[in-house]
Amino acid sequence: MENYIPKGTLTAIVTPFKSDYSIDFDAYDRLLEYQINNHVDGIVVCGSTGENPTLNQEEKIALILRAIEVSEGRVPIIAGTGSNDTYKTIEFSIIAKETGADALLLVAPYYNKPTQKGMIAHFTAINDAVQIPQIIYNVPGRTGINMTAETQIILANTCKNIVATKEASGDIHQIMKIVKDAPEKFVVLSGDDGITLPLISAGVQGVISVFSNFAPYQMVKLVNFALEGNFDEARKLHYKYLKMIDLCFIESNPVPAKAILKLMGITDDAVRMPLLPISPENLNILRNELLNIGLIK
């Protein structure tokens, strides 16, 4: 999809595993079709919700290719190719482009904690090396460092391939600064389902969502109502599903999402270590709230 600009509801899709922890491509196909049939605006493959750290490169390529094959152009496929190694990120990003991905999701470098100048150098190098739409991803809770509004605005103004940011800092003031000062065509996406509604009211144009793994129809409706300015209807859905959205993080993501998908009969709940399946106590909490909001009977 040439000149792709990400907006609306994009699902950060889980990677289903079999009991032996190999990828369950049949379940993956079902989940992809579930997303597409419920009209999500994009699917992010191999993100943190997809357990990126425990996937090898061959598996990541296979997941991207399968998503492209299943989608048949019905929905954009965004490949999570970011890492804390600039040159490995470039190498994998080139592969993702060659396989047919519509865009890249590039997490801020984690663990080695670069300066703001270091992050600008990192993303600029990727921008210059790979001619494909790119979404930068700020998630300090996972990376250990915040990519400031000023840094993101510099990248938005100087890197033509960086078309959007996924902002998961939780800092609403920082996110509003990006919306205010970034170039007109630069898109800010929420990285937190629970604050997507207020962020859209401030000018954010969509979400990369965990909740939409199992509730794509509900999240699409909420986001579309908000983007259309129908905040009364959006607010009803926001508060109806807010507890369930919060419960997506009752344990480390994507453990709860996978447990919910199993309860709904879509995929299994297997996760790769060091993650473990959800505790029985928390599974019961999830089941009760799913019953409460009508997602299972």
Jot down its keywords.
297 residues; alpha/beta; TIM Barrel; eight-stranded parallel β-sheet; 12 helices; 8 strands; 46% helix
What does this structure look like?
The protein is of the alpha/beta class and 297 residues long. The chain has a single domain (8-230), classed as Aldolase class I (TIM Barrel), CATH 3.20.20. Helices cover 46% and strands 12% of the residues. The chain is built from twelve helices and eight strands. It has helices at residues 25-37, 57-71, 86-99, 116-129, 140-143, 149-158, 172-181, 196-201, 216-227, 231-247, 255-263, 280-293; strands at 8-12, 42-45, 77-80, 103-107, 134-138, 162-167, 187-190, 206-209. An eight-stranded parallel sheet has the order 7-6-5-4-3-2-1-8. Helix 9 (216-227) packs antiparallel against helix 10 and helix 10 (231-247) packs antiparallel against helix 12 (280-293). The N and C termini lie far apart (39 Å).
**N- to C-terminal distance:** 39 Å
Q: Detail the poorly predicted runs.
A: none
Number of strands: 8
- General form: globular
Provide the succession of SSEs: EHEHEHEHEHHEHEHEHHHH
- The CATH class is identified as Alpha Beta
Alpha carbon gyration radius: 18 Å
CATH names the topology as TIM Barrel
Name of the CATH homologous superfamily: Aldolase class I
Oligomer: single chain
* Overall residue-averaged pLDDT value: 97
Structural class: alpha/beta
User: Biggest sheet, open or closed, and with what strands and sense?
Assistant: 8 strands, parallel
Residues in helices, as a percent range: 40-55%
CATH architecture: Alpha-Beta Barrel
Strand order of the largest sheet: 7-6-5-4-3-2-1-8
Provide the β-strand percentage band. Answer: 5-15%
How many independent structural domains?
A: 1
List the total number of helices.
12
